[in-house]
Design a protein that fits this description.
calcium ion binding, 360 residues, mainly alpha, 3% strand, two-stranded antiparallel sheet, single chain, disordered C terminus
Length: 360
Amino acid sequence: MISFWPRPRPELCLGIAPRLPLESSPLAALGLMMWRPSLLLLLLLLRRGAQGKPSPDAGPHGQGRVHHAAPLSEALHDDAHGDFQYDHEAFLGREVAKEFDQLTPEESQARLGRIVDRMDRAGDGDGWVSLAELRAWIAHTQQRHIRDSVSAAWNTYDTDRDGRVGWEELRNATYGHYEPGEEFHDVEDAETYKKMLTRDERRFRVADQDGDSMATREELTAFLHPEEFPHMRDIVIAETLEDLDKNKDGYVQVDEYIADLYSAEAGEEEPAWVRTEREQFRDFRDLNKDGQLDGSEVGHWVLPPAQDQPLVEANHLLHESDTDQDGRLSKAEILDNWNMFVGSQATNYGEDLTRHHDEL
């Protein structure tokens, strides 16, 4: 007997990531949106009918499709006045930094020492923390929320509990189990779901870097959050093109770009925000000024070049802590400057941060 849900569950394969507004867009942030612009989402938008106003689900292109890395911390980077909260949150992550703020100085230093050992073990294990190791730690810390979301969903996908997620496990957990040839025979819009399934399988194959059809946690994370992984860049671009390129010529025309946001009612004047989006397309998206976006331009738009924030912070911490100026940090150097890396009850919110730790 075949078992299946009454309808597939595409929400299980929707990776969620914060979307911040493009700095040049006049339309400010409208909250969080789903990264994966799936065929199902487009179908639901179409069912709402033509509307002479922007859809709150589609959102302005300034934040609906564009991926901007979240800041390492919302705190002011103000070391000069003894406030190291930015450094704490960059090095530990916001929630863990709060935990450290409740520790005694002795507990805080002890835990920092264990972190130093972890950083070195994750690198070359030579007993020193290099710039690359420090940067990798900060980057790892900043992606903790993504890894946590994958861990929370892991058991939904890993149905045989073997520590990996096979394509068939993910497909069945997401869409339900069907015998070959009977896929989606019991649901409306079967062709749409078949396209979604094909698209998900293609993304899974790219995320599955060793090609064994079994996803590790890292590979599943790449499947769910492709915008965070350089090797998934091409699939993000391909999916965006497929969503927008209605005439299937391999390019995004300005009207296709606008149609992703807005459907005009008959006789309605185009709103000012739409005219602004047309200007965005002309001035900032269409880099070669040929009136359309190719794959490279789509990539520059949805995955724009960004400053390597973890590297900037790692350089800062190295500069402030490398007392012998050898370009690397010993465990002693980090612990000597512990209050820049982590907080404690005695160094909470900068109150006593200007005092040397030996005075505490």
